[in-house]
Amino acid sequence: MPRIIVAATPLHGHVTPLLSVAADLVRRGHDVAMLTGSRFAGRVRATGARHVSLPPEADYDDRRMTAHFPELATAAPGPEMDAVYARQVFADCAPGQWRALAALLETFPAGAVVADVLFLGTFPLVLGERRGPRPAVVGLGVVPVMAQSADAPPYGLGLRPSGRETHLALNAAARAAFAPVQEHCAKVFAALGADLPGHLYDATVSVPDHYLQLTVPEFEYPRSDLPASFRFAGPLPPPASAGFEPPDWWGELSGAAERGRPVVVVTQGTLANADLGRLVVPALRGLAGEEVLVVAATARPDGPAEVRAAIVPADGPAGTPGATGLAEGPAGTPGATGSAEGPAGAPGIPGNAIVAGYVPFDRLLPYADVLVTNGGYGGVHAAIHHGVPLVVAGTTEDKADIAARVSWSGAGIDLRTGRPEPEDVRRAVMTVLGDERHRRAVARLRAAARRYDPFETIARIVNQNM
């Protein structure tokens, strides 16, 4: 049975797509081992792959990033935060990743390693000296293309293309600002016997034997200077949920869709949701007076309670006119719905809102007319998969760059902030609902995605290198 290693940085947004890839390779008859964080062991085994934990120095809990990487707590979104990620989260974890990968290859001699492009522990495998054949490395682009280009603005600034001269100037400035991080990363890899072939961000694309960007060309800035190893594979379909039992409020959701009442889904994703006051609460407040049904998926069992606490004054009794109590379900289940109709701006969950814990996107988005999100790559592509236009408010990690692509492609509106005002959310949502150009743009992206079969592309490359 052909052996394949799947490797993922222990971040939810990186692990989830690689889990789908591992599951597909298992279904095709491959013997798959997945090297990633220990907290994902159960999800890995559920795919049929064997789980191999990263060593402690590379295994962190992405739900507690500032505990593992304290500088993230004070780093400003944008280049400063990107520098912390590049140095500490990605480069400094590469030695542990590489040692684990090398040890795994000794006992599990795979013909290919399929890794997310920021699992930098694959770099020594490609760049270092090695006797005898080595497995092919297939890099999967689970974030926007990071390589610098004369045709596009540099990664991390959340900018849209603006002209070659401007791009070259921005690239030079970005390289200068990144120089201390680049020097640090070069030393890390030199100690592993691997010389970086240039800028770290360029290397994420150029080092893998095959680089597959998990989107369509229509959602990525055109570039004329990418290596021959680069290709678009199309977005992975959203994972199918299992065992989902619709909550009590599901009839209200399906009824709204049937009656033609617009449904607005609001989410801060599965990780950047520690402070629901950044986007969920402003969206609920801004849309309270509109003839829409708002479904806030907090992805936290305690999310509904936190939202209510943020909206209802601490000294206001439950049941204040215009306020609603929350019907709490079992931990981990969708939990709450507003029911009392109150005027816009009244304390409490607005009467046009449902506030829930975790709700699978594959069940929820088919009802949505707009997705308000902080802009994770997987969530945005899930919206495209279902033909749902977007309003994006995100500035951390890669979210500003994703939001810029949403705007550039016409798929929605980029609010260019991670903490919008309620009126800004309301105006953007109502604009998207009233402007068919956004829905048509998403339809074009959806049609483009259907021309690709990323699982087949990955399997074909893997089989060619076995």
TrEMBL record:
<feature type="domain" description="Erythromycin biosynthesis protein CIII-like C-terminal">
    <location>
        <begin position="348"/>
        <end position="456"/>
    </location>
</feature>
<dbReference type="GO" id="GO:0016758">
    <property type="term" value="F:hexosyltransferase activity"/>
</dbReference>
<dbReference type="InterPro" id="IPR010610">
    <property type="entry name" value="EryCIII-like_C"/>
</dbReference>
<protein>
    <submittedName>
        <fullName>UDP:flavonoid glycosyltransferase YjiC, YdhE family</fullName>
    </submittedName>
</protein>
<dbReference type="Pfam" id="PF06722">
    <property type="entry name" value="EryCIII-like_C"/>
</dbReference>
<dbReference type="GO" id="GO:0008194">
    <property type="term" value="F:UDP-glycosyltransferase activity"/>
</dbReference>
<dbReference type="GO" id="GO:0017000">
    <property type="term" value="P:antibiotic biosynthetic process"/>
</dbReference>
<feature type="region of interest" description="Disordered">
    <location>
        <begin position="313"/>
        <end position="344"/>
    </location>
</feature>
<dbReference type="InterPro" id="IPR050426">
    <property type="entry name" value="Glycosyltransferase_28"/>
</dbReference>
<dbReference type="InterPro" id="IPR002213">
    <property type="entry name" value="UDP_glucos_trans"/>
</dbReference>
<keyword id="KW-0808">Transferase</keyword>
